[in-house]
Fold PmoA family protein.
Amino acid sequence: MTLKKTLLLLTAVFSLFVSTQAQKVSLKETTTGIDFLFGGKEVLTYQTSMLTVPEGVKKEFRKSGFIHPLKSPSGEVLTRIQPPDHYHHLGIWGPWTKTRVEGREVDFWNLGDGKGRVDFDHIISQTAKGNIAEVVVRQNHTDLLAPNGPQVAIEEDLGIRVQSADKGRYLVDYTTTISTPLSTPIMLEAYRYGGGIGYRATAAWNQGNSTILTSEGYDRTNADGTGGKWVMVHGVSGAKEGKSGILFLSYPENRAHPEPMRVWPVDANGGKENVYIEFCPIRYEPWKIEPGKRYTLKYRMVVFDGTLTAEEAEAYWKAFTK
């Protein structure tokens, strides 16, 4: 490849990463969470307060430490929380499911079982400058079955970084670093759910009006259990373009990359046609978390109105790897 062609390619990739008309990003801390705003308009909220549950629902489903709402650039809400079929589904989040702690099986995902939970603990740092804003928080994974009472089994430092991108889109970096304060290892056992980054989509999307595509060319019918560099979900919305969506990118140094995915097929969830996807690094192999060590997973979301091509998705992923 000639130098000229190389420069043209790099310019094209870079243009997907930084907007030529960058919007200012700011932060606003409220009694319930931390809002990320573009030009004063909220696009994403990280929940710091304990979310209540509908009347008649088990109190164990109360929860903090997740992203909702996440909105498209035009303001369409793309996440869903507490759906009646899975009250523990909360927008964008990533608890571990089958976990072995001091010989006990602890489930941090299925809150209703009362075995474990994950909640916001405190803000580590927050910065906002120009077209970038970032918050780093501590989330505690609490073992509710410990013999001497609830104990923190996993400490998670979660970074959420938002910046504007081209074509009115915006980027969200989701970086999770976990460690254990215990003196013995924790085993994250192989399972189809757990960790990584999970996404429960808006209730408006179903099989007929939304599309799923992975970097390897798989769709809703055959993507479940496959590995990929990226997965894209988009569907109908009230945006003027008629559609909105999110592209999820997995960093090349993540465990088990190309990363295995859980993608609800057509008959999942009783055939209710809802949309759920997740990057799941422990789908096929367990992961031992050793005391004194820190383990990091990095993801990026590209949030958009309209459509985004597979070629653009690949370019976004290459920019992410740089």
About this structure: The chain has one domain: 31-321.
